[in-house]
Write a structure and sequence with these properties.
This protein is an all-alpha fold and 412 residues long. The protein has one domain: Na+/H+ antiporter like fold, CATH 1.20.1530. The N and C termini lie far apart (54 Å).
Length: 412
């Protein structure tokens, strides 16, 4: 990887952050999530257009990795596991179908297109994710976040992410020399699940006490922002430990967020991590966008590797897989179309999968471009589709709010 002089590094940071902020704001102004604007900024700044940002530069790559860790930690931090108990069975069924069906469809489609087994597995893995942040934001704007459909979607999205991260850990293990066999897959899966289980079990006993003690010391000696710094140390430490134990660093960062979410200092920590995320997370999305080669989407060029066709196939399989998942819990009396639509956007988690595929050498530029196209399109179509379905549902006089939860969710 290339290195940067300090002046070059500072100039590149200025360009990346300014472009991410401007394009993110423009995306939000037209009703799209900021992540799409940040991706677009990366595409413009990358080799496809201006050539100002090279994500292969070591410094940019490391900053991007920090962005992934902070992002996954923030997702874990915003996850309320107790919420899942209210719609547990419904969410679990939606999640499992929403992982298994898109994965299977994506794998089969890629194999039919002549892709290798490991490439097809990684492509299928990118279809398993659901963007918690994007869906939650849209549902909140529509006043549906606390409705039964919203609770089911968020619960399923959380389970999706956990299962998806484990799948990603398995795939990364296979690309790093693991055995592509039932035994190899089971071993890597057991490692990922085992790390997550042990971490959550021990962490639940240790982390809240640790943060309570640290807060007392901080107040006594007037140490500012101690809980936030301690949370960041925990996220980095568990990410490192996950990587060393044979799992994936993003699993460790997500587990850290789950542990800190139950601490009394969680609101103070959220503020600190949000501020930190405003620096590192946009850098990750810009770097992902800069990795996209627009020429790879040109079907007339032989080096494209059929990226446009791959993207279209993955979009179709991704939408169908998640849409069908919304109808899987037949006992749920709410609007299943809203649940299915809410599961469609891949967003930030899908981009993490795509980037890891590129880093591990599983995806070439063409395949990466096709997967990124799928992530962008599924993320773009979800907000207007949810708004349309929610307006249609309200027109039918559907109930909303917490009071409707017990009425509409009848667990099997």
């Amino acid at each position: 990887m290339e290195h940067l002089e300090v002046s070059q590094f500072l100039g590149m940071l200025v360009v990346m952050l300014a472009a991410a902020k401007i394009c993110g704001a423009l995306a939000q102004a037209i009703g799209q999530p900021a992540v799409l604007g940040e991706l677009f900024a990366g595409v413009v700044l990358g080799a496809s257009v201006l050539g100002w940002v090279d994500p292969k530069i070591e410094t940019i790559h490391m900053l991007s990795e920090l962005g992934v860790i902070v992002l996954l930690f923030a997702i874990g931090l915003e996850t309320d596991l107790k919420m899942l108990l209210k719609v547990g069975t419904t969410s679990a069924v939606v999640a499992m179908v929403g992982v298994a069906l898109p994965f299977f469809l994506g794998y089969v489609a890629c194999r039919m297109l002549g892709k290798t087994e490991i490439v097809s597995i990684m492509a299928g893995a990118t279809l398993t994710a659901t963007s918690v942040g994007i869906t939650a934001r849209v549902l909140s704007d529509l006043g549906k976040l606390r409705a039964p459909e919203g609770q089911v979607i968020l619960g399923a999205a959380v389970i999706d992410d956990i299962l998806g991260l484990v799948i990603l850990a398995v795939v990364i293990g296979l690309t790093e020399g693991g055995e592509l066999s039932v035994r190899g897959i089971l071993t890597t899966t057991a490692t990922a699940f085992g790390f997550l289980a042990v971490t959550l079990l021990l962490g639940t006993l240790i982390v809240p006490r640790l943060f309570t003690g640290a807060s007392r010391i901080a107040k006594r000696f007037d140490f500012p922002a101690t809980p936030s710094i301690l949370a960041l140390i925990l996220a980095l430490g568990l990410a490192w430990l996950a990587e060393k134990s044979g799992s994936a660093l993003i699993v460790g960062a997500f587990a850290a967020g789950l542990l800190v979410a139950v601490c009394p200092q969680v609101h103070e920590i959220e503020k600190g991590i949000t501020s930190l995320g405003q620096l590192f997370v946009p850098l990750f999305f810009v770097a992902v966008g800069a990795s996209v080669d627009l020429a790879s989407l040109d079907p007339t060029k032989p080096e494209s590797g059929g990226a446009l066709l791959i993207g279209l196939v993955l979009i179709i399989t991704g939408v169908i897989g998640k849409g069908v998942a919304g109808f899987a819990p037949f006992w749920f009396k709410g609007n299943k179309k809203i649940v299915g639509a809410g599961m469609i956007p891949r967003g930030e988690v899908g981009l993490i999968f795509a980037q890891k595929g590129l880093e591990q050498g599983v995806f070439d530029i063409g395949m990466f471009g096709g997967v990124t196209l799928m992530v962008m399109v599924t993320t773009m179509i979800a907000p207007p589709l949810l708004k349309y379905l929610a307006a249609e549902y309200v027109g039918e006089g559907a109930p909303d709010g917490d009071g409707a939860l017990d009425e509409l969710v009848n667990e099997a």
